[in-house]
User: What shape does this take?
Amino acid sequence: MPAVQIERKQRVAAAAGMPHHRHMRPDASHDAALAARIEELDWTGIARNLEAHGYATTAPLLDPAACDALADLYGRNRFRSRVIMARHGFGKGEYQYFAEPLPPAVATLRRAFYPHLAPIARAWSAPLGLDTPFPDDLEGFRQLCRAAGQSKPTPLLLRYGEGDYNCLHQDLYGAVVFPLQLTVLLSRRRDFDGGEFVLVEQRPRMQSRAEVVPLEQGQAVIFAVRHRPVAGTRGTYRVNLRHGVSRVARGQRYTLGVIFHDAA
Assistant: This one.
């Protein structure tokens, strides 16, 4: 087993106060603290950056032990499906979709972020031509997903090794789409080189524009799933965004993806 994985497992076990082979038990106080950190984010600044750039970053939300605990789940039976990217032309590396019930930290991230992003989604609805009402709470939105035949959870854990990368793509799983999602870096920066989060924006009759978004462990980037509205001289128009990950030059990189719409 690589030294990075051994060290990560030791940190997870030490944080939990238990032997390496035992599963960590959820701590409700940690979930409450995470929800409080999300509540205290600069939501005005986040909304401003999303409007200006199509993405926004947060302060670190998960501490190293919480990041390690989530990454350590990759080898456990917590997932509904596994995707080897090279088999589908998606890139190189792999990811797994969590099964219900979601790990507490993942469920908290999804539930606590949604009410702050729903007003932004509603403001984007008319310019993007969306007719989804985007209720105030996540459960109300998930009911809309279920009514459209979308009932499978979409949060996922991604693992990249040396030489791995993720092609530019959009996470669309059915007719009902929430226009924003987020990614949390779980690995420490010193444990890998390369592997940067990349956004590419395609504007009508213009060259594509790329953004490289550096992240630290536990930090999240919030970004547009597919389109975002942009104010122009002739009114508001829609631009297309895709995201991916550049090639990992060294080490191993884990990330958590939190998508709000469910899959068919």
Observations:
- Residues 3-259 form a domain with the Jelly Rolls fold (CATH 2.60.120.620).
- The helical segments are 3-16, 28-39, 43-53, 64-72, 85-88, 104-128, 138-147.
- The two ends are 36 Å apart (CA to CA).
